[in-house]
Design brief:
globular; binds magnesium ion; cell membrane; alpha/beta; binds adenosine-5'-diphosphate; 4-stranded antiparallel beta sheet; amino-acid transport
């Protein structure tokens, strides 16, 4: 049975994310030129491509930080590009971590992790903190609960940012080059945590330059060039048997 027939029978098999023919331009520069991308539950999709290829813009349109010019994006059943959509409510269903500045510097680690639960979902502080502490224990940072972010290493900060992003159990996690600003020796601890999330069943779309990580963890690798998906497939296809000359050429430059 193909994927769409399976979905018709089982609503739970609907994709978490369905990006349909999305176009985005900045001024007269087209940045996304007809992106189609579906992401199923528990799937880890890794976006690769040169700097400027549109990876961040794509992630931002999904999180409604940028409006699409054309096309539609569905989160589950909901067309989130519908202008009447409640942006805050959509964002509450998506966890996001960027390259930089994810944590509020004036709040301790636990308050950072529990903020959304308390403010967006109205969870009582004691309940939010119980969940938050369990989450910090899971990522090995329970002893940092009362520290402020500037007392943590970059790798620890990004692990807390991931904990914050998953604290409210989002349907989808968007990770945009979350290790690019880290010293090389701190990259592993952050990527290991992403591997743990995959093992626990998270649905993730992630832009990264870490090709060996992409090979290990991605269910699907998507190669983006100048706002177009050139090729997409399992890591063995993309890295070992790329079908397109552009993909081969890009990979020969990055490794
Ligand atoms: P990537 O994340 O793959 O490096 P981006 O999505 O950040 O690529 O950028 C794609 C293109 O869009 C680049 O040429 C970039 O300069 C341009 N761009 C991104 N954001 C903006 C913006 N807010 N205003 C104008 N141009 C932008
Ligand atoms: Mg980017």
């Amino acid at each position: 049975m193909n994927a769409s027939a399976k979905r018709a029978q089982d609503p739970a098999a609907r994709p978490v994310l369905d990006v349909q023919a999305v176009h985005k331009r900045f001024g007269d520069q087209p940045v996304l030129r007809g992106i189609d991308l579906t992401v199923d539950r528990h799937e880890v999709v890794v976006l690769i491509g040169a700097s400027g290829s549109g990876k961040s813009t794509l992630l931002k349109t999904i999180n409604l930080l940028e409006q699409v010019d054309d096309g539609r994006i569905f989160l589950g059943d909901e067309d989130i590009t519908d202008p009447r959509v409640d942006t805050d409510r959509v964002r509450a269903r998506i966890g996001v971590v960027f390259q930089h500045y994810n944590l509020f510097p004036h709040m301790n680690v636990l308050d950072n992790v529990t903020l959304a639960a308390r403010k967006v979902f109205g969870t009582a502080r004691a309940d939010a903190e119980r969940t938050g502490l369990a989450l910090l224990a899971r990522i090995g940072l329970a002893d940092k609960a009362k520290e402020y972010p500037d007392r943590l290493s970059g790798g620890q900060q990004q692990r807390v940012a991931i904990a914050r992003a998953i604290a409210t159990d989002p349907e989808l996690l968007l990770l945009d080059e979350i290790t690019s600003a880290l010293d090389p020796q701190l990259v592993g601890e952050v990527l290991d945590l992403v591997g743990d999330l995959k093992a626990a069943g998270s649905t993730i779309v992630m832009a990264t330059h870490e090709m060996s990580f992409a090979r290990r963890v991605a269910d699907r690798v998507v190669y983006l060039k100048d706002g177009v998906i050139i090729e997409s497939g399992p890591p063995e296809q993309i890295f070992d048997r790329p079908q397109r000359e552009e993909t081969r050429e890009f990979l020969s430059r990055v490794r």
